[in-house]
């Protein structure tokens, strides 16, 4: 089997297991973003579950609509039973980096109002410490007018900020919220991750960081052989 197929099977196994364990008829469900979450939506559809879905991006809105599921938003559905989302890297203490797809702002808003946040990912996202496998840094959403001073401040926090550039478009990536994304590259180990998350968030112009601390209840990692390792703290 090719590497991509192995990875896709691992993602699917993780997403299916999370849905099977947690999602029930009548629930309000947050739908994360990325390539893994597609399988969670597939499973919800396959099981015919009667749930109300709140998306975390343009992409997940499309997934919900295409699957024929009930689409809502945080204004109409401000309290969720469970959110299922992907991740770029998870450490042994459940510190998580998200935002590889630039969706971390809406993802965090949706996760925050959820009773339970489940992370579904393939085995490459399961690390001892952040930065072991994810080399693209911490995604940080910033308002466009402030990106230069934010980058300078990030340098003073020993991070190496890079403005994320678009592919097939001249200029920077523009998030679903009209903002820029700075990827703050770091050399592991990160010291005091909860404090770092606060320090970054406190910089004027920063809207949200891709550091998800103390948020996930359970992590599901699909393995090469199609099994799933799940972890709770
Ligand atoms: O945080 C995210 C988007 O902002 C994604 O959940 C994260 O990048 C994982 O994506 P994938 O499931 O494609 O590996």
TrEMBL record:
<dbReference type="Pfam" id="PF06026">
    <property type="entry name" value="Rib_5-P_isom_A"/>
</dbReference>
<dbReference type="GO" id="GO:0004751">
    <property type="term" value="F:ribose-5-phosphate isomerase activity"/>
</dbReference>
<dbReference type="GO" id="GO:0006014">
    <property type="term" value="P:D-ribose metabolic process"/>
</dbReference>
<comment type="similarity">
    <text>Belongs to the ribose 5-phosphate isomerase family.</text>
</comment>
<dbReference type="InterPro" id="IPR004788">
    <property type="entry name" value="Ribose5P_isomerase_type_A"/>
</dbReference>
<dbReference type="GO" id="GO:0009052">
    <property type="term" value="P:pentose-phosphate shunt, non-oxidative branch"/>
</dbReference>
<dbReference type="GO" id="GO:0005737">
    <property type="term" value="C:cytoplasm"/>
</dbReference>
<keyword id="KW-0413">Isomerase</keyword>
<protein>
    <recommendedName>
        <fullName>ribose-5-phosphate isomerase</fullName>
        <ecNumber>5.3.1.6</ecNumber>
    </recommendedName>
</protein>
<dbReference type="InterPro" id="IPR037171">
    <property type="entry name" value="NagB/RpiA_transferase-like"/>
</dbReference>
<comment type="pathway">
    <text>Carbohydrate degradation; pentose phosphate pathway; D-ribose 5-phosphate from D-ribulose 5-phosphate (non-oxidative stage): step 1/1.</text>
</comment>
